[in-house]
Design a protein that fits this description.
Layout (H helix, E strand, L loop, with lengths): L1 H10 L1 H26 L5 H4 L1 H30 L2 H12 L3 H18 L5 E8 L4 E4 L3 E3 L11 H4 L8 E7 L8 E12 L2 E11 H5 L9 E5 L5 E3 L11 H8 L4 E6 L2 E9 L6 E7 H48 L14 H17 L5 H13 L5 H11 L9 E7 L2 H5 L4 H19 L3 E8 L3 E8 L8 H25 L4 E5 L9 H12 L2 H4 L4 E3 L20 H20 L5 H16 L3 H21 L6 H4 L4 H4 L3 H23 L2 H15 L7 H7 L4 H12 L3 H19 L4 H7 L5 H12 L3 H14 L9 H8 L1
Parallel strand pairs: 15-16
Antiparallel strand pairs: 1-2, 1-6, 2-3, 4-5, 5-6, 7-8, 7-11, 9-10, 10-11, 12-14, 12-15, 13-14
Helix pairs in contact: 2-10, 5-6, 12-13, 15-16, 19-20, 19-21, 20-24, 26-27, 28-31
Organism: Paenibacillus jamilae
Protein name: AraC family transcriptional regulator
C-alpha cells in the first residue's frame, strides 16, 4: 500500500516539483549558513567596526568638549587684566601695595574659574621669577615652596608649544602623589614673548568618569608621545604589548591584532583638540559567538524546510486530490457502463476550461479600456519583454492588426502656468475632459487608445479603421491628410471648449507593436518643435515602413549635436559670469543674444531644453552657495516648467530670473558684512601657510572673535574653522597633484606643523590619506575615461535609444 502511494505521488508533476524545490531550498539555506560562517571574519571590517568606532567617537566628543571648556577658561585667564598685572609685578618691580591688591583680586578670580567640579585648581605662573598664585594655596614668590611641583619639569615647554596637556600626580613626587590630575597649560604672551602660563588642573577620575565604556571591550587613551593617559594601570590586558598594537594600527582606523593567545579587533580615532589617540579592543570570540548561533539556526531552518516540503506533498496528495475525484465523478456521471478516466486525465479538461475563463475575463468590456491604457504605458516605458508584449497584444487588441500603428503625443502648453491657475480637483476634471474630447474626435476614422504621459499630457496609439483604409501611395496620402485634419480639428475644439491650448507631436508609422516606442520618441521630438513654432500646432514626423513613402513634414537643420552642446555649455558659463559681473542687465542682454542665435541656427530643441534645465539647476546651486535668495520661479523649479514653453516664454522666464538674481547679488556685494567676510577669506588665502586661527583673523579685521564667528557663519553658511580647513585641504590637493613635494613639506605649506595632524584632517575630508590621493589622481589622469555629459528626463531615453 505504501509503495503504491509513493508511486502515485512521484508520478505527479506537482509533487515532484515540490520535492525538487524543497531539496534545492534546503541545500541553498545550508550552503548560505556555512558560507556565512566561513566568510564572516572577512566582513567584520564593514559590519562590526561601526558600533565600536561610534563609541570611540562619542568618547572623543566628550573629552574634546571638556577640554574646549577648560581651554576657553585658560585663554580668558591669559588675557585677564589682573593676570597681566601679576606678570608685570614680577618683571618691572612695582609697589608692594599694588602687588597685594592685584594678588587678592587674582586669587578670587582663579577661585571663580575653579568652581567647576571637574577642575581641581587653577594656577598662574611667572616663568621669569618662578612665582605663582593658585586658587588652592594662594600666592608663593618661589614655586619650589608650593605643595605641588610635579609640573615644574615640563612647564618650560610652553615656550615652544601653545598648548600643553599632561597627566601627573599632585604633590612633589611623581610616583607618590596623592591626587591624579590632567593639567592643561596656555601661555601668557606680552610683546611677542611668553612671560608666564595659566595652568588648569582637571581631576583625573572625574574627567574620565564621563566616558562610555562597553562591557565587551577595553579602551585606552594615549597622548602624542605615546604615553598612556587612560586607564590607570588596572587593565585586564598586558599593557607591555600595547606598544606593538599601536605600531600595527599606525594611522589605520582598525586592525586585527593578537595579544597573548587571544585575537582582538582594534579600533582607533584621533582628537584634533588634544592630539590624543583613543583605542578600543574587542575580543574576537565574542563577535563569533552570534554567528555560530546564526549558522546553527540556518541549518535548523533547512531541516524545517524539508519537513515543510514533505508536509506540502502530503497535503497535496490528501486534500487537493479529493475535489478532483468529485469533479471526475461529475464528468462521468452519465457513463455508468464505461470505465472512468484517471485523475490525471482531468488536467487537459480543466486547463481548457480555466484558459477560456481567463481569456474571457481579460476582455470584459468594462475593464478593457483601462487594461489597454496600462498596456500602452508599459510598452512605451519598456516595462515588459517582447514575448509578454505580443501575448497581451493578442489578448487586449484582438480587433486590431499589428501594421500601420502611429503614436501621437499630446501636451498642454505652458503647463506650469496652466496648473497654477486651477485647484487639483479642477485640473483632474479638465484632463479627463481633454481625454474624452480626444477619443471622441478621433473615433470616426481612427482606432485610438490613450495613456497618461508624465503630468502635462497624453500619449495616443492610433490605427486607421479598415473601412477607410486604402493600400498604396494614394492611400498613404489620404491617411496623412485625414490625420492632419483630425489633429488640427482636435486642437481647435480643445481651445474652444477647455481653458487650455495643446500642441501635438506625431511619430512615424510602424508595422509592429515592438516598434511603438520608437514612434513615441519621434513624436516627442516633433512635439519639441513647439520651441520655435509656438503653441497650438501639430507637428508630424513620419517615415516609410510598409512599402509606402510618407512625406516628412518636420524640417530641422541637421547640426553636430556635440558641437551644439559645447557652445551651449560656454553660454551657460557666460550667463553665470554675467550675473556675477557689476554690469546691470548684462545677463538679460546675453539671454536675448542667445535666443537670436537659436532662431537663426535652429539648434536642436532637445539641446536647448537640456541647456535651460542645466542652467536653472546651476543657478539654484549658485544661489545656495552664495547665500542669495532664489526667485520664486527658481525655488519651485521642475522639468515641466520649461519643456512646455516656446522660445519667447523661455527668454522671458530667464530674463526675469537672471535680473532678480543679479539685483540681489549686487545688493549683497555692497553690504558691509559681505565685504568684511571677503576680507577674512583673502587673509586666510594669503596666510594659509601659517598657523593662523580665529583669533588672528579677528585681529586682522579688528573685530571680536564672537562677532567674526557669527558674521562668517551667516554670510557663508560655514564656520571659520571648517572654511579654513577646506582651503588647506584644497591647496594640499593641488600640491599633491601638481608637485612632487613630500607629505611633510606639503603639510607645512598649508599651515600644519605636525604631519600626523595633517594626515588625519586630510583623511577626514577626502576619506583617503594624502599618499593614496596622489596615487589615485595620478592613475585617473593616465587611464580614466572622461565621464559622460548629464542628461535628464525624456532626453535620457532619446540618447539610450
Amino acid at each position: 500500500m505504501l509503495r503504491l502511494k509513493l508511486r502515485l505521488i512521484l508520478k505527479n508533476k506537482q509533487t515532484r516539483l515540490i520535492l525538487l524545490l524543497t531539496l534545492c531550498v534546503s541545500l541553498v539555506i545550508s550552503v548560505i549558513g556555512l558560507l556565512s560562517y566561513s566568510r564572516y571574519r572577512e566582513g567584520l571590517d564593514t559590519e562590526l567596526n561601526t558600533p565600536n568606532i561610534e563609541l570611540l567617537q562619542i568618547n572623543l566628543d566628550v573629552t574634546n568638549q571638556a577640554f574646549r571648556e577648560s581651554d576657553n577658561k585658560a585663554l580668558d585667564a591669559a588675557y585677564h587684566p589682573d593676570v597681566e598685572s601679576f606678570i608685570r609685578i614680577h618683571t618691572d618691580g612695582k609697589s608692594v601695595s599694588n602687588k597685594a591688591s592685584v594678588i587678592d583680586r587674582l586669587q578670587k578670580y582663579l577661585k571663580t574659574l575653579s568652581s567647576s567640579e571637574e577642575i581641581y585648581s587653577v594656577e598662574v605662573i611667572s616663568l621669569e621669577n618662578h612665582a605663582l598664585i593658585s586658587s588652592n594655596y594662594g600666592y608663593l614668590p618661589d614655586w619650589n615652596q608650593a605643595p605641588d611641583t610635579t609640573w615644574v619639569p615640563w612647564i618650560q615647554n610652553i615656550q615652544k608649544k601653545p598648548l600643553l596637556i599632561k597627566r601627573r600626580w599632585y604633590g612633589t613626587d611623581q610616583q607618590h602623589g596623592t591626587i591624579e590630575l590632567l593639567s592643561l597649560a596656555r601661555p601668557i604672551v606680552e610683546n611677542g614673548q611668553v612671560m608666564g602660563a595659566v595652568l588648569i588642573n582637571l581631576d583625573y577620575d572625574r574627567f574620565f568618569s564621563k566616558l562610555y565604556i562597553h562591557l565587551s571591550n577595553s579602551q585606552y587613551v594615549y597622548d602624542l608621545e605615546g604615553e598612556l593617559i587612560y586607564p590607570k594601570l588596572r587593565s585586564s590586558l598586558p599593557l607591555n604589548e600595547m606598544g606593538r598594537v599601536l605600531k600595527e594600527l599606525d594611522v589605520n582606523p582598525y586592525a586585527y591584532v593578537g595579544i597573548g593567545d587571544m585575537e582582538y579587533m582594534a579600533n582607533q580615532t584621533f582628537s584634533d583638540v588634544t592630539g590624543w589617540r583613543l583605542v578600543s579592543l574587542v575580543p574576537m570570540d565574542k563577535l563569533l559567538k552570534n554567528v555560530k548561533l546564526a549558522r546553527n539556526m540556518m541549518l535548523w531552518l533547512a531541516l524545517i524546510s524539508i519537513l515543510a516540503g514533505c508536509s506540502a506533498v502530503y497535503y497535496y496528495s490528501y486534500a487537493a486530490f479529493r475535489p478532483m475525484k468529485k469533479i471526475n465523478s461529475l464528468l462521468n456521471s452519465g457513463n455508468k457502463g464505461t470505465r472512468q478516466g484517471g485523475l490525471y486525465d482531468l488536467e487537459p479538461v480543466i486547463s481548457k476550461l480555466v484558459g477560456e475563463f481567463q481569456r474571457k475575463s481579460l476582455v470584459v468590456e468594462r475593464s478593457l479600456p483601462e487594461l489597454r491604457s496600462k498596456y500602452i504605458e508599459d510598452v512605451i516605458q519598456r516595462r515588459m519583454g517582447v514575448q509578454e508584449m505580443r501575448t497581451k497584444w493578442e489578448q487586449y487588441f484582438s480587433d486590431w492588426d499589428r501594421t500601420s500603428l502611429v503614436v501621437m503625443v499630446v501636451s498642454i502648453d505652458r503647463y506650469s502656468i496652466w496648473t497654477a491657475s486651477f485647484p487639483e480637483e479642477d485640473k483632474m476634471l479638465l484632463k479627463y475632459a481633454l481625454n474624452n474630447i480626444l477619443l471622441e474626435m478621433l473615433e470616426p476614422q481612427w482606432k485610438a487608445v490613450s495613456a497618461p504621459e508624465e503630468e502635462n499630457g497624453l500619449v495616443v496609439l492610433l490605427q486607421l479603421r479598415e473601412s477607410v483604409y486604402e493600400v498604396g501611395a494614394e492611400g498613404a496620402a489620404k491617411e496623412r491628410t485625414w490625420l492632419r485634419k483630425s489633429v488640427d480639428r482636435l486642437i481647435q475644439v480643445v481651445g474652444e471648449y477647455l481653458p487650455m491650448t495643446i500642441s501635438v507631436g506625431i511619430g512615424h508609422k510602424v508595422t509592429d507593436i515592438q516598434e511603438v516606442r520608437a514612434s513615441f520618441i519621434q513624436g516627442k521630438e516633433a512635439l519639441n518643435l513647439r520651441l520655435y513654432e509656438g503653441y497650438g500646432r501639430s507637428h508630424m514626423n513620419m517615415s516609410s515602413n510598409i512599402n509606402v513613402k510618407w512625406d516628412c513634414i518636420v524640417d530641422v537643420h541637421s547640426q553636430d549635436q556635440a558641437q551644439d552642446a559645447r557652445l551651449l555649455d560656454h553660454r551657460r558659463v557666460d550667463l553665470i559670469r554675467a550675473v556675477e559681473s557689476q554690469k546691470p542687465g548684462a545677463s538679460a542682454k546675453l539671454v536675448s543674444q542667445w535666443v537670436e542665435e537659436l532662431r537663426h541656427y535652429r539648434t536642436s530643441p532637445n539641446q536647448v531644453y537640456l541647456f535651460v534645465h542645466e542652467l536653472l539647476e546651476d543657478l539654484l546651486k549658485w544661489c545656495t552657495t552664495q547665500s542669495v535668495t532664489p526667485p520664486d520661479q527658481l525655488a519651485d523649479y521642475h522639468w515641466n516648467q520649461i519643456v512646455t514653453l516656446d522660445l519667447q516664454d523661455i527668454e522671458l522666464l530667464l530674463a526675469i530670473m537672471l535680473t532678480d538674481i543679479e539685483e540681489k547679488w549686487h545688493g549683497r556685494q555692497q553690504s558691509k558684512d559681505f565685504v568684511r567676510v571677503q576680507e577674512m577669506i583673502d587673509y586666510m588665502e594669503n596666510y594659509l601657510h601659517l598657523n593662523i586661527g580665529l583669533q588672528e583673523i579677528a585681529d586682522h579685521v579688528h573685530m571680536s572673535v564672537s562677532s567674526v564667528s557669527s558674521m562668517f557663519k551667516e554670510e557663508t553658511g560655514s564656520t571659520v574653522y571648517d572654511y579654513l580647513t577646506g582651503l588647506r585641504v584644497k591647496k594640499a590637493c593641488i600640491l599633491l597633484c601638481e608637485t612632487h613635494l613630500k607629505i611633510g613639506e606639503i603639510a607645512e605649506q598649508v599651515g600644519y606643523r605636525n604631519e600626523n595632524s595633517f594626515i588625519r584632517v586630510f583623511r577626514k575630508y577626502k576619506q583617503v590619506t594624502p599618499g593614496k590621493f596622489r596615487q589615485i589622481n595620478k592613475s585617473s589622469n593616465e587611464y580614466a575615461d572622461r565621464s559622460k555629459d548629464r542628461r535628464f528626463g525624456e532626453i535620457e531615453d532619446k540618447y539610450e535609444d
